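From the shared-data thread, chain only:
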Amino acid sequence: MKMLLSLIALLSAALLSRAAPPTCYSRVLSLSKEITESFKELQTSKAVDSCVEMLPRLYLDIHNYCVLAKLRDFVAYPRCERVLEVSELKEKARSLYTIMISYCRRDLVFLTDDCNALENPILPPIEPSITES
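Structure, as tokens:
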């Protein structure tokens, strides 16, 4: 019985050690990926308003200092207020901006300030799947 209780305690401790609370960095990273993916889906959606095509490009790299200006510009973009998906995306972008400039201000490290990299990102190549060979 003691052995079983010890095993349960050991397994519980192992599970708890892996369940670390999210950090500022992890929250910013996950929210930026979520926003980038939502923007891609919005751009490729068939049932979008014509104003969506005119939205500023939204590729977010939280390690690039220019991402702050990119978020500000996107949130301040005056068109597409009537499109619900765009309003939701702008709200997420506003939240990310607020988190980055206030809550996580001291935790983030910007590795570059290349604004052009946000306009023309170099994406990793897509590896062909095994089934295509």
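The two ends are 55 Å apart (CA to CA).
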